[in-house]
Structures are given as structure tokens and as C-alpha cells.
Amino acid sequence: MIVIGACLRLYNLGVPSMWWDEALVPLIARFPVGSILEWLRTIEVHPPLFYLLVKPLAAASQTDFALRLLSALPGIACLYFVYRLGEELVSPLAGLCAAGLLAVNPYALWLSRIVRPYSLYLLLYLVLLWGLVRYRATRAGRYALAVFAATLLLYWTHYMMVVLAPAIGLAVLVMTFPSWRAFLLLAATDTLAFSTVLPFFLLTLRLPHWVGEAPLSEILANAGGSLLKLAWFLPGPLGWAMLALCGLGFVAVRGRPRLVAAGLALCLVPVAIVLAGRLGWTGEPRYFLNFFPVMLLGAGGGLAWLLGRLGPVAARLACLGLTVVLAAVVVNNAREFYGERSLLGMTWISYKQAAAAVPGLVRPGEAVMASEDGLYNALDWHVQRRGRGNPLRAVDVRPTDGEVMVNFLWFGPMGHLAQTKDDLARRYPGLVEVGTVGGLSFLKAVVQRTPVQPATALPWERTFAGAADILGSSHSLRGLVVNPNWGEAAQPAQNDRAGSIEYCVDNLSGQGRPRISLACRYVNAGEGNVLRLLVGYDGGPLREVLSSAGPDRHVYRKVVLDPPRDFRRLLVRVELSCARKTAQYPGGNLAGLQLRGLLVALDAPGGDDPGCGPAAGRP
Questions:
Q1: How many other CB atoms are found less than 10 A from the CB of residue 441?
Q2: Running DSSP on this structure, what letter comes out for residue 17?
Q3: Whose CA is closest to 133, among 81, 93, 92, 97?
């Protein structure tokens, strides 16, 4: 059974493209440990363990195969522990049947092939149950230690343990009453383990993931669908057959009411908590892993009851044969597990396929705009891993360019810029869709440029803001991309390397030394981020006149300059450098440093300030 399960889990492990939730893990693991912990406390809804395990693994190898081993190996180990549980609680044949059913279960297989913590969570849950069973039978201290270790790691792996813990406590009480020893052991270890994760858990309670107002009918319908998918995710009658076997297993052990009651407690108590809290995330089978051991052991017991009439050897061979047949069913659905777009019915982008297409569709130097920050971060990471040049980071619009080619990476609405592709075409005439790869659409448009702005009379002022000015009115643009959300802004194309945008004004007013007012609207939310504003005259050296070091609570700064001499041409450069120190939700932090607008004003010497506002503004 272990060999079959291992082959199904390890075959082509590195081939399927990561979906968004997977890609988020190595993207966040790139950040310092302190930033990861802060991100998990304030933004994410998962505890830190899985991310902290991925970090050294990603430092050694960033291949999909290596990163997914952290799920595949626990998935294989689950087979051993479900066998041991079945052997202890029902019979060796029941344990063997349960292990065989787990080896070929499509959903368990998928969880073992993604960079998410659910396979590890299931392993720890099985270890905890096995430790409790062994402690009840032997009272040996090593099993008490196993219970504590598994409980501690469960809390640090997923907050589902908070919902599961009362169910485990009730199940233990049912199995051991009137003795309180095992229950008190569990209560003590659970309290101690939970206290270590409280600083994370209490903050995540306020996040939308935990807030529920879903109708009870919706919760129950979603829960039923999730359980059927958990039993057998692929279409067909096998899911119902698995549930029928589980029911038969409960009937087979009806003479052991404590065992039946404990199994029901493990299943029903978490559901009661979900219903009481009106939690609306019941449509995902992975949130019902508390059912999985009970379902597997019940189905294993039911199958063992059917096969037991054949005799010990024949029953084992029949179990092995059935496992092979079910494995063949899984292999026959190879597209769901082993191809580049094996997303088990989901409609996410295949980042691997899209990244492979980027060098052929986006040329170095062209401008880039993505519909989401997370899309850009994940695609950039995949392109960078290929090691063949990354045109997403090579934006280079020069003063001599009379036009610029803009690449739109489309996976849905582009914020304030466009809600549909038709909206985008109206804003950018001549827009062409050059291809859709892995679910991601690549569109291109040419934007005409005016690299130098004439100031023919004083007072003169111009606010440069939005994609049109970033692309069409800038003197140059290097290492920055356009974020179409929240009013459109320029932000770095990569971490720890400064990008810049320049605006150029020709002073044609006849006043040789006008007063200059400059005002920036910006976001600088991350530690180590730097925004610098520099000016130069007539091709001379640039000097810094304003700066912002992150995190900066201000969103607006201004400076008024009296030029040291007459000038004909003013060059204003804004440099942005985003440090990889402060993680944000979309798998990166580039959107934490943005130039949202730049006002340039010229006035006669000694003239009034042209209304740029206060020197610094707070949000």
C-alpha cells in the first residue's frame, strides 16, 4: 500500500503548475523570518510552521518537486499511521483496507502534491489519534510525549485544530470514562500547546476568514458536498460507495458503542461549532479533514467485514487488488494530477505555462501592467526561476522613444483602469490580444509619448498621475511597472533594485530662474523602502531634494526650490527602491512603495506658492 501511495504521490510531482495558494508560500518564504511571523499574525489565517519549514527548503532548492516534498512525504507517512490506527481499533485487515483506500483517495493524493500544509496537518492528526490510542492501552510516557508533540505541531500548522480540539477531548472522554487520566493528559497538553500559538490566533480572529454570516442551509449544503468530495473527488459513484462502506464499518462495530460514539464526536462536534459560528468556508473539503480518519477507518472496517469471509490471505490479496484497480482509476484521470494544468477542477492561472510564454510575448524594455499584484509577483517568480532573462523586470523607456509598447497581463478586471477587455480597448485604441497561455491573456497596445513638457508662460504647473502620464508623459521609465489599482501608480518591478521615472520640463517662459515647487503623492509602507526625489538643470548633475524612508506614515510631501542659476531645462527624477523586508498579502511587497502623483510647478521668482498644500500630509 505504501509503495502504491508513494508512486501516485511522487510521479511527476514537479510537473503541475502551482496555483495561487501554492505560489503564495514560497513567495512569502523569501522574506526574513520576523517579517513572515508579522505577516502571519496580521494578514494570513494560518500559523507559521509550514512557512518556516518551506523557508530553508526553498533556500536549498526552488524547484516545484523539492517544495512539494514537504507535502508528499507526510502524505506517504499517513498510510502507515492510518494502518496502525485501524489495526489498534478494529483489526489488522481493517487497517490494511483503510491504508489502501487512503493510498488512492484522489483528494488526499492532491493534498500530497501541493505546497500547502494540509497533508502535514493530516499526518499530525493521525499521529495524535494513534498516540492517544497507544497511551490508553499502555500508559507509557513516550506516547504521552507523542500526543503533546503532535498537538503542539497541529496548532502551529493550521487553526482547524481550534475547532477539532473539543471533538478530540470529547472522543477521549467517551473512550476512557470513568477514568479521567487520558482526558486530563489531553487537556493539559492541549492547553499548553494552544498557549504557544495564542499571539497569532487572537489577531487572526478579526480577519474575514473567521467571520461568518452564511445561512445554515448554505453551510449544510456545502458541508455535504465537501464530504462527498473528500470520500472520492472524481466524478462517478465511487464517492457514494466510500460513504456506504463507512456506514457499513460503523454497523460492523456496533457492539463497541464507545468506539462509535468517539467517531461521531470527532465528526459532529466540529460541524456543530461551524454551524454555531455561521462560518462560510465549508465549501472546501480540506476544511473537513477531521472527518478523514473516521471516514477511512469506517470504510476500511466495512471493507474488511466484506472481505473477511475470504480468509486471511485471500482477504489481503483482494484488498491489494482493489487498491490497484482504484489506482488505475486515478491514473486514468491523469490530467487532474500529473499534467501542467492539473488544478483539480480549479480555474487558476497555470503560472508555469504563462511564465514559459513571457520571453516570447514580452520584449525587454517594454512596459508592463498586470491586473493583480499577486499575479505579477507569482509570474515574476516563475519567470525568474527559469533563469533565461526576465523581461518583466527589464522595463526601459528612453527619452528618445516616441512611443512605448505596453503589455497588459489580464486575469480579470484591472482595477480603476478597466473592468473588461472592451473597456481597456476603448482606453487604448489599437489594443491587440496576442495570446492566452495557461489562462492568462497577453494584450499589447502602443502609447504615443511626449517626453518633454513645454512651460511657455508662468505660472505653469502640471500634475503627472495615472497610467497615461507614467507611460506617455514621462521623460524616461526604468525598472518600474504600472499598478492599475487604486488610481494607477508606478512601483518597482523587483525588490532591492531601484527603479526610476523622470519628467522633463522645458522652460520657454523667458524667465530664466523661476521658483520650482514639487509635490509627491506616494505610499511607502515597508521597512527599508526608499523614495528619492532629485532635480537637475540643463543636463547637469542631479541632486536630492526630498526623500522618504519606509515605513512612512505620510502620503504627501512637497519642496519649494529657488534654482541656483538660470536654466532652460528641468529634469525631475523619482527613484523607488523596495526592500524585501515587509511581507504583504499578494506574495510580495512591491505595491508597498508607489509613486501615485507628482506635481511640478514653475512660478516667477518671489511669486506665490502655487497651492501645493502642506509640506507633509498624513493619511
A1: 18
A2: P
A3: 81
What's the pLDDT at 194? 87
Separation between Cα atoms, residue 194 and residue 156, nearest integer Å? 9
Cα separation values, 228 from 217, 291, 362, Å: 17, 11, 44
Distance from CA of residue 534 to its chain's centroid? Answer: 37
| Pairwise CA distance, residues 483 & 504, whole Å | 22
Cell 502642506, located at residue: 614
**Three-state helix/strand/coil letters over 104-132:** HCHHHHHHCCCCCCHHHHHHHHHHHHHHH
Residue 543: alpha-carbon gap to chain centroid: 41
Nearest-angstrom CA–CA distance, 516 and 511 = 12
Q: Region of 529 please: left (phi>0), alpha (psi -120 to 50) or beta.
A: beta
User: Could you tell me the three cell numbers for 15?
Assistant: 510537473
In sequence order, the 6+-apart residues with CB closer than 8 A to the CB of 3 are none
What single letter denotes the amino acid at residue 493?
A: A
The per-residue DSSP string of 168-219 comes to HHHHHHHHHTT--HHHHHHHHHHHHHHHHHHHHHHHHTTSTTT-----HHHH
Residue among 102, 86, 69, 338 nearest 230 (CA): 102
Alpha-carbon dihedral 42, 554, 466, 456, rounded to 10 degrees = -170
According to the model, what pLDDT value does residue 617 have?
41
CB 506 within 8 A of CB 450: no
Asked if residue 226 lies in contact with residue 288, where contact means CB atoms within 8 angstroms, the answer is yes
Of the pLDDT bands very low, low, confident and very high (cuts 50, 70, 90), residue 86 is: very high
The Cα–Cα gap between 164 and 161 comes to: 5
| DSSP 8-class letter at 414 | B
Q: Report strand pairing: 616-617 vs 556-561.
A: antiparallel
Cα dihedral across residues 182, 188, 192, 198: positive or negative:
positive
Count of other CB atoms within 10 angstroms of residue 201: 18
For residue range 467-514, list pLDDT tens digits in order.
999 999 999 999 999 999 877 999 999 999 999 999 999 999 988 899
Largest Cα separation within the chain, whole Å, is: 105
Q: Rounded to 5, what percent of the chain is helix, strand, coil?
A: 50, 20, 30
Sign of CA dihedral 224, 25, 46, 590: negative
Q: The C-alpha cell of 263 is what?
A: 467517531
Average pLDDT over residues 556-563: 95
Comparing CA positions, the residue from 594, 290, 331, 602 lying closest to residue 466 is 594
The residues near 515 (Cβ < 8 Å, ≥ 6 apart) are: 560, 561, 562, 563, 602, 603, 604, 605, 606, 607
Question: Could you tell me how far CA 56 lies from the centroid of its own chain?
Answer: 18
